[in-house]
Write a sequence for this structure.
């Protein structure tokens, strides 16, 4: 069965394709499916937003669609930027601008703990929904390290690997990341669903 990956974020597309192919799931991009949808992400949770995105792609393509909604939750900032991670600081900012703003807002904070969260949902043409969540705990650095990955990767330190996400290889990041963990939780649910068809 073919699935549409409901994301226009190149960094995420690359990662999700890589991890999903490991579990034998064939995915095509929205462009390959001949659609271009960007629904308003007006949910208040990662789960709500991932379902909004998957549903829009499914309705436009007629194919089952998989979407991820993710973000960075910082304890000392009361959970910000959270579901607003992609829009933190407003429109027109680069990834570097956004993590620089985050570092500024973290000045003087002793609690640097944070987590990345990812919720993955699949919406089927018959309306069925499968959803799974994954997290990756870490700490906000005082200055960026490494230039790999995307988004907040250079300022997010993962203790188990002793590196920032910006310093990790793709394989390293997939092995510990929120998205990797969400996909690993999602896969058995998808497999069980497909078995019942
Ligand atoms: P979404 O496309 O609405 O899910 O936005 C997620 C946003 O959270 C991204 O634009 C990034 O700013 C941030 N984010 C999510 N996952 C990651 C990651 O793996 N590394 C760095 N930043 C991430």
């Amino acid at each position: 069965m073919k699935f549409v990956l409901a994301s226009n974020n190149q960094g995420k597309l690359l990662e999700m394709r890589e991890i999903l192919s490991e579990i034998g799931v064939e995915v095509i991009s929205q462009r390959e499916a001949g659609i271009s949808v960007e629904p308003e992400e007006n949910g208040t949770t990662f789960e709500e937003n991932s379902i909004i995105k998957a549903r829009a792609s499914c309705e436009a393509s007629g194919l089952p669609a998989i979407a991820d909604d993710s973000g960075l939750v910082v304890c000392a900032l009361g959970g910000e930027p959270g579901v607003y991670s992609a829009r933190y600081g407003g429109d027109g900012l680069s990834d570097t601008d956004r993590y620089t703003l985050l570092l500024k807002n973290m000045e003087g904070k002793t609690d640097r703990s944070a987590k990345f969260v990812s919720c993955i949902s699949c919406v089927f043409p018959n309306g069925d929904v499968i959803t799974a969540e994954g997290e990756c705990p870490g700490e906000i650095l005082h200055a960026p390290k490494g230039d790999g990955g995307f988004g907040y990767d250079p300022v997010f330190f993962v203790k188990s690997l002793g590196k920032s996400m910006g310093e990790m290889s793709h394989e390293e990041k997939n092995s510990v990341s929120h998205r990797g963990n969400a996909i690993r939780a999602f896969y058995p649910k998808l497999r069980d669903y497909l078995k019942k068809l």
Remarks:
- The longest strand covers residues 129-140.
- The chain has a mean pLDDT of 94.
- The beta strands are 2-5, 26-29, 65-74, 113-123, 129-140, 156-158, 163-164.
